[in-house]
């Protein structure tokens, strides 16, 4: 089943790229987009186990516990353990998800429920992109990776993307306060929204102290229901940022240049790997963000540049992370990022290997196949635009 999904998704990119260059009529875009998602809803989740974590953290909250305080293997939660708990990975790590997403987790009790929830956010994103980008909304509606990740794998990223696109649309309609709340909603739905939100907030149309105060106040208030966790609320995020490493590109070059792997004990006793390369990567992302200000990029272009830089410099790049770039490419059309969305499907080779052998393998060969076409096209596109 896993290999069939990968092959089918890769083959679907052929008609997809044809549609990108020659968009069909709106009725065909909607019909095929909905049909593809309905079909994927019926497919069992095989390429990811994240949805089982969603079900667990919703159950923990509904039982009156704070998932920032108690990891899945905490003795206090022993009475809640069930068959779903057995499928949760990294049970020693407390929640790393933002508050608004945790609230949504309360609403789902099965993988299918989360498939439906995040597919609805996915379709809402298409509705918004249709108003922002007109016929280019097909870039999102028909993207095989988008369909696989939300209707197929029940990933939560569609929620953050939906809020972010809503913020861009509302700001374009000169509604700054609802736009600011939507931007805060994106940050409160996934951590990857943070660099994009920063890029937008410091762009000229958003540069307003009252907007920044509303944004910060909304984000701060959302954490109040979980305040009893104190600083332990950061532990899950520190685990993810400090320990995880998978499918990186430029980050792997930084690791090679700085002398390989080393570990240091950090916040809360969590061991941090590759601290040097991560500091360099952070400074480079900050430099790209500053560049968008100097060059006076419009908000959508700044978000694409900063999000793209964040992913290329990240130590962990899961396929669903790239759906951010697919959404932004509807507004800021860039072929290299769309090609990367196709290449990302290959990274699921690690999951297939794990299912068959029990060993997770982050293959350098797979990364070369994924990223080489992207960087080649990115170089050509950059030169062409400069000329």
Q: Output mean pLDDT.
A: 95
Q: How many β-strands, per DSSP?
A: 2
Domain unit count? 1
Element pattern in H and E: HHHHHHHHHHHHHHEEHHHHHH
Radius of gyration: 20 Å
Summarize the biggest pleated sheet: 2 strands, antiparallel
Distance between the termini: 47 Å
The class by helix and strand makeup works out as: mainly alpha
How big a fraction of the residues is strand? under 5%
The percentage helix is 55-70%
* Strand order in space, largest sheet: 1-2
Give the low-confidence spans.
none
Shape: globular
Number of helices: 20
Q: What can you see in these coordinates?
A:
- By secondary structure, the protein is an all-alpha fold.
- About 65% of the residues lie in helices and about 0% in strands.
- The chain has 20 helices and 2 strands.
- The termini are far apart.
């Amino acid at each position: 089943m896993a290999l069939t999904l990968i092959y089918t998704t890769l083959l679907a990119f052929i008609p997809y790229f044809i549609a990108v260059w020659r968009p069909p009529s709106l009725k065909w875009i909607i019909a095929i987009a909905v049909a593809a998602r309905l079909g994927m809803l019926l497919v069992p989740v095989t390429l990811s186990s994240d949805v089982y974590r969603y079900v667990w953290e919703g159950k923990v909250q509904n039982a009156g516990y704070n998932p920032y305080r108690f990891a899945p293997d905490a003795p206090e939660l022993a009475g809640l353990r069930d068959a779903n708990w057995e499928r949760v990975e990294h049970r020693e790590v407390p929640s790393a998800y933002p508050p608004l997403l945790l609230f949504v987790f309360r609403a789902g009790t099965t993988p299918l429920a989360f498939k439906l929830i995040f597919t609805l956010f996915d379709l809402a994103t298409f509705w918004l992109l249709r108003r922002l980008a007109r016929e280019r909304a097909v870039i999102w509606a028909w993207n095989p990776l988008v369909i696989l990740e939300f209707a197929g794998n029940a990933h939560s990223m569609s929620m953050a993307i939906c809020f972010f696109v809503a913020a861009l649309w509302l700001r374009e309609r000169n509604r700054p306060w609802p736009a600011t709340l939507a931007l805060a909603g994106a940050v409160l739905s996934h951590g990857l929204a943070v660099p994009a939100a920063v890029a937008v907030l410091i762009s000229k149309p958003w540069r307003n102290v009252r907007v920044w105060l509303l944004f910060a106040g909304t984000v701060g208030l959302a954490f109040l229901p979980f305040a009893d966790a104190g600083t332990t609320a950061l532990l899950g995020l520190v685990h993810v940022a400090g320990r995880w490493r998978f499918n990186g590109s430029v980050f792997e070059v930084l690791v090679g240049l700085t002398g390989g792997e080393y570990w240091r004990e950090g916040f809360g006793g969590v061991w941090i790997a590759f601290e040097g390369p991560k500091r360099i990567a952070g400074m480079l992302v900050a430099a790209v963000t500053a560049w968008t200000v100097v060059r006076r990029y419009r908000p959508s272009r700044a978000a694409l540049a900063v999000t793209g830089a964040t992913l290329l410099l990240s130590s962990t790049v899961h396929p669903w992370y790239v759906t951010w770039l697919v959404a932004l490419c509807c507004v800021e059309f860039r072929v290299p990022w769309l090609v990367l969305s196709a290449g990302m499907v290959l990274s699921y080779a690690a999951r297939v290997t794990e299912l068959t052998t029990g060993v997770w393998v982050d293959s350098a060969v797979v990364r070369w196949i994924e990223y080489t076409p992207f960087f080649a096209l990115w170089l050509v596109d950059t030169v062409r635009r400069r000329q």
